[in-house]
Amino acid sequence: MNELTQPGRLSRVRATAHAKLTLSLEVLGRRKDGYHDLEALAVSIGDPSDVVEVEAVPHPAGVTLEIAGDVDHVPTGRDNLAARAAEDLLIEAGRSGHGVRMWLRKGIPAGAGLGGGSADAAAALAAVRRMLDVDVDDAGLHQLAAGVGSDVPFCLLGGAAWMRGRGDELEPVSLDGTLPIVVAIPPFRLATPAVYAAWDELGGPVADRRLEPPPAVAGIIDELANDLEAAAEAVEPRLRSFREDLEEIVRAPAILAGSGSAYAVMPAVDTVAQASDLARRVGRRLRVPVVGTTAAATGVRLSA
Ligand code: C5P
Q1: Domain containing 148: what range?
Q2: Mutate to test the pocket of ligand 1, among 22, 26, 196 (most ligand atoms within 8 A of CB)
Q3: Helix, strand, or coil here: 33?
Q4: What's the 197 CA to ligand 1 centre distance in angstroms?
Q5: What's the CA angle centered on 245, arms 261 and 20, to 5 degrees?
Q6: Are 197 and 290 found together in one domain?
Q7: Is the confidence at residue 264, as pLDDT, over 80?
């Protein structure tokens, strides 16, 4: 029994927000509301991650946010999804008289397709709910999450799941064993709306590169592909040579993370330590941040 598992309010809660990686992303078509219907297989990954810390302020100060770490391209104020999520929860719960101070330490690069902003929003929802002992159940939190962004429900659920609809309809799945992953982050970033707009302009291309799934997901999916890759390459032509260089070093095919710009490889190794060794070698050759990691069981981890 610790502070977190006991009922009642807390003055401060810390949450680790894990990045999300789409192992495969099929775009089914553009919807009337401008979003796109998807069928994606996604996993939470251990690394990179962000830390969101919230503190209750005893007067109606609204939500204030301070950001540190890898802050490049990270929106501030109410443009930040974590601040917006916390405000939405306070309003939904009739707690708009409360203030929340929030600190965000960024480890997940923005514009890399790793769901960093969505993970922060999910962490903010879970942390503020716990701190203020807010009477909103998991289904209610899922609804709020979907209102903040298409990927926020997945980041809140975490683990591994099929994402359908605009990404907010989830079907959890179980991985078969460990899933070592190497994630390489290029020095350029991509804006998700621009990549979807390019997919429309290109006439809705279907991925031509199809990868054999690693053993951990072979029972769930037949092949891995990302329908946004051609669109992402149209927006950022340097993406292709980045991938080709990465594939040459690891001698394995790479899959684009979401709308990019990060690329992931699932190397034929048994342990995360081996994936980390490989990541270090790739990082030295490509001179960019590269992490060796594995699937994480949760999207958000709370601590008091
Ligand atoms: O839902 P969210 O605000 O995170 O989406 C950001 C942008 O990504 C949308 O405005 C849209 O351009 C694009 N998007 C999409 N279809 C999805 C998810 C996102 O077109 N399923």
Answers
A1: 12-172+297-303
A2: 196
A3: coil
A4: 10
A5: 30
A6: yes
A7: yes
